[in-house]
Amino acid sequence: MAEKDGPWSWVVLCGVTFMFFLENGTMKAFSVLLPDLQEQLSSQTWIIGSCISIMTGWGCLLGMFASYLKSRFGVRLCIMFCGLVSSTGLIVCAYATNVYLLLLGIILTGFMYLQENIALGIVPEYFDKYYNLAVNIYGFGSGLAVVVYPLLVQMAQDHYGWHGALLLLGALTTHSLIFGALIKHNKAEKSLSIPLIRDNPQREIDKTNFILNLKFLTSILKRCDANLLTDPSFIFRVVLPGIANGYTVSGWLIYIVSFALSVGATRAEASLVATTGGIGLMIIRIALPFLNSIMTYRQLLYASSITMAASLALMTLFQSIPMLSVMSMIFCLGTGTLTTEIYIAARDVTEDDQYINAVSWFHLSFGFSMIAGGTLSGIIFDISGSFSLSFLLLSVVSLLTAVSLGLENIWRAITS
């Protein structure tokens, strides 16, 4: 076992940061390629947008099995397998000739979100004193990805087309296998005893098999810590903010490039708008250790919710490239804060051995709301012909975090 906060902990953190970099960057890459995918595959905006959002939603759904898979197969094997599958998915997307093949590739690519869940779950095993700093460091990888990927993908697209750009992304994703090899479980593995359901030689469904089925489902639910959903603090501080964050991030991340193109930006200018958002993420990752020392995570959750709502609303009022760039940066200051503080809140209301499941439930709420955000925002655009209404709805939904915390205060006042 490696010492907590020791030298090897920082090596592991580099691997986790790289996985965050891949996950956020891949999502952003598809948003840059969305207009070309729509044109080449002869599809509507909302269909391509919903396919991209499914990548996150499906991946977050897989994250619910992170704890079981980690105990059953080990951290290293799971991370390397997910890296191989997700890179294969990007290669499948590169050769897609229709929406169905694209969706298949995106589903395979979604395994990188399971990879991220498993990697995040071991961070508390390696860090104690510097845990909050570790959260901000691996979160910095997401900001760096939003800065680098739009420029990288646009450059690759200009030289090799969208097929070549996706092939390069697939090659880059294979490097997660190397980082997976550096990570191992830092606790004694607990034996996982889940009854297996054997085939009945006589093909009869008897009482014994029925009981085994119940035990299997009960064991899975126990392994996922489903009792967390009965904790109001967990719902108000983690699940509902996760829903608000997922919906708004999906709408912004998938459609901001198309939004910029719709108001007259060139391809290079539209990619630059996305890049400024990444700069905002990087800035807030640097500033958050200081902010966490002077403010509570609840205060930061309130502030981020209001910041996101205001920036999205202003995008719809002042539709110019400079304003979209500035507001994208401010929006990412908010969402970067919100995501980080949700992880801190999850650790605050759970024990170390529950943390991976707390993150999984957060990612599940985040993922399903991302599917809703990516799909509904695209449908509203296809109906209205403008992104203004879509982004205005994103602004309203982003206030759910502040509302959730207010409801928790009311609940505590009533129950006390």
Describe the structure.
- There is one protein chain.
- The chain has helices spanning 7-40, 45-62, 66-73, 75-94, 99-109, 111-121, 123-126, 131-173, 176-181, 207-223, 232-262, 267-294, 297-317, 321-348, 355-384, 388-398, 400-415.
- The chain has 416 residues and is mostly helical.
Index terms:
mainly alpha; 17 helices; 416 residues; 0% strand
Write the layout of secondary structure elements.
Blueprint (H helix, E strand, L loop, with lengths): L6 H34 L4 H18 L3 H8 L1 H20 L4 H11 L1 H11 L1 H4 L4 H43 L2 H6 L25 H17 L8 H31 L4 H28 L2 H21 L3 H28 L6 H30 L3 H11 L1 H16 L1
Helix pairs in contact: 1-2, 1-6, 1-8, 1-11, 2-5, 2-6, 2-15, 3-4, 4-5, 4-6, 4-8, 6-15, 8-12, 8-14, 11-12, 11-14, 11-15, 11-16, 11-17, 12-14, 13-14, 13-16, 13-17, 14-15, 15-16
Q: What gap, in angstroms, lies between the N and C termini?
A: 43 Å
Uncertain regions spanning at least 5 consecutive residues:
188-214
Helix and strand element order? HHHHHHHHHHHHHHHHH
* Main pleated-sheet profile: none
Q: Determine the structural class based on helices, strands and strand pairing.
A: mainly alpha
Question: Would you report the number of β strands?
Answer: 0
Tell me roughly what share of residues is in helical segments. Answer: over 70%
What percent of residues are in strands? under 5%
Nearest-integer average pLDDT: 81
Rg calc: 21 Å
Number of helices: 17
Shape: globular
